[in-house]
Design brief:
With 148 residues, the protein is mostly helical. The chain is 59% helix and 5% strand. It is built from 4 helices and 2 strands, in the order ββαααα. A hairpin with a 2-residue loop joins β1 and β2. It starts with a strand and ends in a 28-residue tail after the last helix.
Length: 148
């Protein structure tokens, strides 16, 4: 197996793979020495003092309180949505019952019978031409007659 080296590229000739000795390469690799400041900064980063622990504990408690309040609000919202849904269902049922009762009352009224009783028993008559007074509507839904 022949090797040639050109421009920092190694070419291998042959049909066998070369044996790698990783242990030897790790031992030969130079170890980088850490400076005193770097070691000091790493030690400081791993060290936790009392103030830092108290700050973290306070932050954790604050997060827990906020989370509990949020869950409580979500629970209240869910219960109110269920209550609104139940009340809407009750309203729909009452509206249907009211509509059925109204239709029953309207269908049970015989206008011809009312006309016969009004003319025959009560003596009512149809209005004559001079008795009908027409008023102009002033844009309101109803009108009041104050004087003759």
């Amino acid at each position: 197996m022949a090797q040639t080296r050109r421009n920092n590229v190694t070419y291998m000739y042959g049909n066998t793979a070369r044996q790698l000795d990783v242990r030897r390469e790790l031992q030969e690799a130079p170890r980088k020495q850490l400076s005193h400041e770097t070691r000091k900064n790493r030690d400081k980063a791993t060290h936790m003092n009392v103030h830092y622990v108290l700050f973290l504990a306070g932050a954790l408690c604050l997060c827990a309180v906020v989370l509990m309040h949020y869950v409580q609000l979500q629970s209240d919202l869910t219960s109110k949505v269920k209550m609104v849904s139940r009340l809407e269902s009750q309203l729909n049922n009452l509206q249907l019952a009211n509509e059925e009762d109204y239709n029953h009352v309207v269908s049970s009224v015989d206008l011809e019978e009312i006309r016969k009783i009004a003319i025959g028993e009560l003596g009512m008559t149809y209005a004559k031409e001079g008795q009908i007074i027409k008023y102009e509507k002033a844009g309101s839904d109803y009108m009041r007659k104050v004087s003759e």
